[in-house]
Amino acid sequence: MLLSDTPPKADQLPTISGVIIAAPAANVVQPPAARQPPPAREPEPEPVTKPKPQPEPESKPAPESKPAPEPKPEPKPKPRPKPEPAPDPKPKPKAEPLPVTQPEAEPAPAPPETRAKPADTKPAPAPAATTDQANTSQGAPVTTPRIDARRHNNPAPAYPALSRRRGEEGTVVLELLVLKDGSVTNVQVKESSGHPRLDRAAVQAVQRWRYSPATKGGKPIDYPYLQPVTFSLQG
Smallest Cα–Cα separation from 214: which of 111, 113, 139? Predict the structure, then answer.
């Protein structure tokens, strides 16, 4: 519908019969809304690293309080034993010395015999073959060596102490050579007594003995000789 600025005349006015025409609503143009800035993005939360749970220290049970030990009763002093009287020491038996006699010899011309305690020595003749050869050589008589107690002080063989304790006895026959001056050499055991200690004691003693030398035609000569030595514990 066009509107005119000239007012209409009365006869030109239309007749309106009770009809109400509603005018259309005017379009209200609203100004454009101001652009709102986009909402700021919230920063993403940083991941929170949880600390590793540390093991809780084990709670040690409190040490039980031990009851205080009861005081021990003091020991009663023991009665001291009465000292027993020491027994009287028994007197030790005195060792009686064995009697020792000087060697005796029979006077010449009998064969010399030397006796001693505990050793007993008796001479023995030389081997028969040697004696016969000496007696028949050139027809001159031969006298055998001998021990003269008045001239010779021959010590008796010492009886070994161990042989005494063990009761060793016996006779050893020594083979020796009596020289022109009456000394002795080449002493050897011809027949053992059965006890080496007794044999050695006899050899050591006879090596220091002196004899009256054997003679041939009145002149001294070297002469082989057998000398027995007896060890006896009997008095």
Answer: 111
Q: Cβ of 158: how many Cβ atoms within 10 Å?
A: 14
pLDDT of residue 202: 97
Determine whether 184 is exposed, middle or buried from the number of CB atoms within 10 Å of its CB (0-12, 13-18, 19+). buried
Assign a CATH topology to domain 125-231.
TolA/TonB C-terminal domain (3.30.2420)
HSE, CB side, 13 Å, CA atoms: give it for residue 159: 25
pTM of the model: 0.45
The closest of 123, 115, 154, 147 to 232, measured between CA atoms, is: 115
Q: How far apart are CA 41 and CA 50, in angstroms?
A: 26
Question: pLDDT value at position 78?
Answer: 72
Mean pLDDT by 10 residues, the chain (235 residues): 52 46 47 59 64 64 63 69 63 46 39 42 49 54 84 89 96 97 95 96 95 94 96 87
What's the rounded Cα separation, in Å, for the pair 84 and 190?
Answer: 64
The backbone region for 141, taken as left when phi is positive above 0, alpha when psi lies in -120 to 50, beta otherwise, is beta
Rounded to an integer, what distance in angstroms lies between the CA atom of residue 210 and that of residue 32? 174
Strand-pairing partners, residue 146, are 212
